[in-house]
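Title: Comparing notes on inverse folding

I've been comparing how different people in this forum approach sequence design from structure. To keep things fair, I'm posting one structure and asking everyone to reply with a full sequence. Here's the target:
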């Protein structure tokens, strides 16, 4: 197991070498320029997300499509991922999360737009889309579309299942101390609840996410606001430290000296991608199910997910950790954020950690649901819409939920990073080659809206 863990760690480092960081950030910046800084329309997107589209083509409302996508992004990446990035890359990693989020808004917009444009209607009336259909229909590269679908399918077991369940198990066992809860009990409970929801398909998943996502996000942000309010004198120094250490040649990170700007950028961008999934190609799979005939409209709605996820929620987590000083305590993962809540909230430590536990459990659970939908659509594409294959996948996914608590934290996160990069590559190729389509659709839409 030690050899396997070391190999996974090495492979993660190789894949996330400067090439992948430059490619991802470069695409974000390129699409920002090509779309005329579409980020300025983010509040228009928020308004459209709660405005009903009169179109009938689609399976769920635009808001349900957004919350399903948010369900898979607002999760452990915001709580555990940010804490891990700060532990490995220092406070400077938060800056690179911001950069990934701000410029990533344009990428999320573009990938959702082309997903709607190139989606297809199945024989039973469902709308199917995502990077695999874009690569096949927009670029005539079905082989690359199948490669993306394969990577996304495999990623659903790591990013969507193992990472989330592992985080739930870790925080529950560390906070519920009055009774010893074995990992098998956590696995069974989560597997049963997951099975109950995912067997109902996208409409049931969307209904659950529509109710849970806004509520849990609001509760978590309120908790972070209380921490910032109680420690308001440290907010400006904390922001200065984040910016300074993002470019320092020898920044202090995780109690160790020598991990500077490159390491901060590597982990900040990697966790930023994990958090908001801009450029990953997953969220457009949910966007394709939206009831709309306007690719640009849904692109605007979808891009608000990156704003909410990274600019709002990840910022709250990062600042809470930095201003409370828990980043330099030697703690790792969710323990860093838990310590920040215990130190920053005006409650007994038990109450503070229990509140964070509830937020993380709901965050992670909705992520499990969202990624199950992504995996199903990818397998459907690979198996030529085989219902048998999809049903087998659902039970394998439930099994992955069951065994998630037994995996090590480091291995789980490294595997997630690897599949993130492998998924992103085909999707980024499609985005760069089809950028002219994005520009044309954008100009046409806003000309008509005038």
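Reply #1:
Here's my take.
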């Amino acid at each position: 197991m030690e050899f396997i863990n070391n190999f996974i760690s090495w492979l993660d480092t190789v894949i996330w070498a400067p090439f992948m960081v430059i490619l991802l950030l470069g695409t974000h910046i390129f699409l920002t320029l090509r779309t005329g800084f579409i980020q300025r329309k983010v509040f228009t997107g928020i308004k459209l997300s709660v405005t009903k589209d009169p179109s009938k083509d689609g399976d769920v409302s635009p808001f349900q499509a957004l919350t399903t996508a948010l369900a898979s992004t607002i999760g452990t990446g915001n709580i555990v991922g940010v804490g891990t990035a700060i532990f490995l890359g220092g406070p400077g990693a938060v800056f690179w999360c911001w950069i990934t989020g701000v410029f990533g808004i344009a990428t999320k917009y573009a990938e959702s737009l082309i997903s709607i444009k190139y989606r297809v209607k199945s024989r039973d009336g469902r709308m199917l889309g995502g990077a695999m259909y874009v690569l096949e229909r927009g670029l005539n590269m079905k082989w690359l579309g199948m490669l993306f679908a394969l990577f996304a399918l495999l990623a659903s077991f790591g990013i969507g299942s193992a990472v989330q369940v592992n985080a739930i198990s870790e925080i529950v066992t560390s906070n519920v101390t009055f009774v010893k809860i074995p990992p098998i009990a956590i696995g069974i409970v989560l597997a049963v609840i997951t099975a109950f929801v995912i067997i109902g398909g996208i409409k049931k998943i969307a209904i659950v996410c529509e109710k849970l996502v806004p509520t849990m996000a609001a509760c978590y942000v309120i908790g972070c606001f209380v921490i910032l309010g109680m420690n308001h004198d440290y907010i400006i120094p904390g922001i200065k430290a984040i910016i300074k250490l993002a470019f320092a040649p020898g920044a202090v990170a995780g109690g160790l000296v020598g991990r500077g700007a490159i390491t901060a950028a590597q982990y900040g961008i990697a966790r930023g991608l994990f958090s908001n999934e801009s450029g990953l190609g997953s969220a457009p799979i949910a966007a394709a199910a939206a009831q709309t005939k306007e690719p640009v409209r849904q692109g605007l709605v979808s891009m608000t997910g990156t704003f909410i996820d990274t600019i709002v929620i990840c910022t709250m987590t990062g600042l809470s950790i930095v201003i409370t000083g828990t980043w330099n305590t030697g703690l790792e993962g969710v323990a860093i954020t838990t310590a920040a809540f215990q130190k920053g909230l005006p409650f007994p430590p038990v109450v503070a950690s229990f509140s964070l536990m509830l937020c993380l459990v709901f965050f992670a659970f909705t992520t499990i649901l969202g990624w199950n939908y992504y995996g199903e659509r990818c397998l459907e594409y690979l198996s030529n819409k085989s219902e048998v294959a999809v049903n087998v996948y659902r039970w394998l996914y439930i099994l992955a939920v069951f065994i998630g608590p037994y995996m090590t934290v480091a291995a789980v996160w490294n595997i997630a990073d690897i599949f993130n990069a492998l998924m992103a590559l085909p999707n980024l190729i499609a985005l760069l080659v089809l950028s002219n389509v994005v520009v044309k659709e954008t100009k046409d839409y806003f000309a008509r809206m005038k």
